[in-house]
Structures are given as C-alpha cells and as structure tokens.
Amino acid sequence: MSFFSQEIETMDRGELDALVDERIRYTVQFAAENSPFYRKWFRTNKIDPTTIREHEDLRDLPVISGKDVRERQPPDTKEFEFKCVDWPEVFTVHETSGTSGNPKSFFLTWRTGTVMQRSMPEHLSLKTSRPGTGWWSAPLTA
Q: Which helix H or strand E contains 24, and what residues bound it?
C-alpha cells in the first residue's frame, strides 16, 4: 500500500508555505475561539490572534511549557482548560507517561481520530521498515 500523496508531497515551496500558513491561521483562530486557556493566554499576553498570519509569526510567541499544560487540567483544576470541544465530540483521551509530573492529557475528536488513523500506517511504515530500528526509531541492540 502506498502512502505517497503526490499533490502534497510534490508542491513547490511557495505552495507548501501557503498551505502551512493557512492551517496555522485556522488553528490559531480555532484555539482562540474554543479554548479557555488560549482565550486567557492571548488576552494576558496582549496578542491579537488575527495577527498570527504565517509560520514565521510563531517564533515571536511566548512558550507554553508542559508545566503550563499540567497546571491547567485535573487534578489541579476542575476542567481541562486546553480542551476545545464538548465531551460528546471527544473520541478518546490520550495521556503522556507522566515521567515529569502528572500526565498531560490530550483529546482526539472523531475527526482527528480519522486523520490519525490515516497517517499512522505511514508513520509506522517509516519507523519500522528500516533494518535496525524499532517502534521509537531507537536502534535495536542485543
């Protein structure tokens, strides 16, 4: 089975940058409208989300740390402040291992779950198809 997407993977640099920038604008606007955390974060940092127009603009934004994420979800808060959709839209909840504190939770909707389902076979084929590599791309050793 081929996972090659000729339309995307053969775009010239200008078209690819334009696509990335379009997706950044959509994502920033979606977060600003739907995430309690990002609504407050934009306001606190005096950032107008509509001024984030291209990937180069991301370099000027304040960093959001893993600690920031952990402190804005249960058990530290009543609600998941990063969650951008209502619970009926959530397909599954994933968590990190928690090695640096409480696990960080993230949510997949039915739509994002479908996107991941399509992309995972490609990801897995790239990670496991080369001799000497395993699931996490770490060299296999005896």
A: helix 13-34
Task: Indicate the pTM of the whole model.
Answer: 0.73
The rounded distance, in Å, linking the Cα atoms of 102 and 75 is 9
Q: Is 107 helix (H, G, I), strand (E, B) or coil?
A: strand
Query: How far apart, in whole angstroms, are the C-alpha atoms of residue 35 and residue 81?
Result: 7
Count Cβ atoms below 10 Å from residue 47 Cβ, excluding itself: 18
Q: pLDDT tens-digit profile of 52-92?
A: 999 999 999 999 998 899 999 988 889 999 999 999 988 88
β-partners of residue 133 are 139
Side chain identity, residue 130 = R
Q: List all residues 6 or more positions away from 35 whose beta carbon is below 8 Å from its beta carbon.
A: 81, 82, 83, 84
Concatenated DSSP letters of 70-97: HTTSTTTSSS-TT--S-GGGEEEEEE--
**Tell me, what amino acid is at 81?**
E
Q: Are 120 and 112 in contact (CB under 8 A)?
A: no
